[in-house]
Amino acid sequence: MKILSVDDSRTIRLIVGRALRPYDCTLCEASNGEEGLAAAAREKPDLILLDVTMPVMDGVTMLTKLKENPELKTIPVIMLTAESGRENVLHIAKLGVRDYLVKPFKEDQLLEKAGRIIKLQKKDAVPAAPAAPTPQ
Amino acid sequence: MNPKTAPVDIREFLNKHLAEVFETMLSQTARPAAGPPPRLSERVTGSVGFGGEHINGALYLHLSAAFARQMTASMLGLPLEETPGESEINDVIGELTNMLAGGLKSSFCDAGAPCAVSTPAIIRGSSFQVETVPNVSQEVLVFDCGPNRFAVEVHVRLD
Prior knowledge:
In chain A, 38% of the residues lie in helices and 18% in strands. Chain A has helices at residues 10-20, 33-43, 59-68, 86-94, 107-117; strands at 2-6, 26-30, 47-51, 77-81, 99-102.
């Protein structure tokens, strides 16, 4: 699994990385929407975690451009926003996000939301062995 | 909306929202405190502006440099012996200021005063203060987090 974290705050990217460290997934990072679009085209992630307020290109603009691109528009996006008001939530819902997470958030909340969209498997998890045939 | 009335009770909102931000991101308890804002010698101030058709202003988070370092180490999960660098402190304090301002902005929007927020900026120093201009109302909220006293200042102009 590949996850792209787009946030101008290194702190948030670090928290995302820390939350995902125990899981078998690759994390890519970008610090604004413009870099995020390029990274999405290059990496084809399974999930994008996208901040709203960023310099250069904000998250709403990046999401709009993502949805206009036939190759990228199916990548699921979780918006990370410090703005929890119903106006803001309705606005980003209309843009086609799969979910949103309001800052401040706990790492568990991030994992729960991401886990609903992609399969997060712990690094040390041993795949379940096939069931032994039942003796006849 | 009445253009001369603040759309939300800023003090009531921030007392609750700041406690939530500190608890969630830092696992620390911050409580509203009585008395004047602290006189900080070496200070780190995070600021985020907000602006819309009927409302403009900014939110400032004033911290001592020592408390800012401590908060950064806590949020980044740094070991005790590691001192965070200036850019790490700026990023953490900027993000915390962004969370406080984002919540306030949302409450303004929901109360009928839509606005947008800026990206955070950091001011450092020992001898500066934020001046208000005419027609701007100012709220200063003081908090205690353990032994650390800090302040949040909100400037609002309603048109």
